[in-house]
Design brief:
The protein is mainly alpha-helical. It has four helices and two strands.
Length: 90
Amino acid sequence: MVVWPLYAEQRINRVFLVEELKLALPMVENEDGFVSAGEIEKRVKQLMDSDEGKVVRDQAMRMCEGAKTALSEGESSLTTLNELVELWKH
């Protein structure tokens, strides 16, 4: 994923995705706030072909597997969701 925030909370989302979760590469904006076609090309190639891109891709796969596990029968997310549904029923 590459991120280019435009409005409101998107700038903090960029920080979270790039620096905290390491799930994205940031776009570098021009002075006018836009991203050039060259920048897009550079970041996509970086994501696909560089060591930094591999780190992002590997992290995305780890997060995907973690989400699948959490949603599996008897795991934390599914159990918590079922508990919440039962609370709402009563």
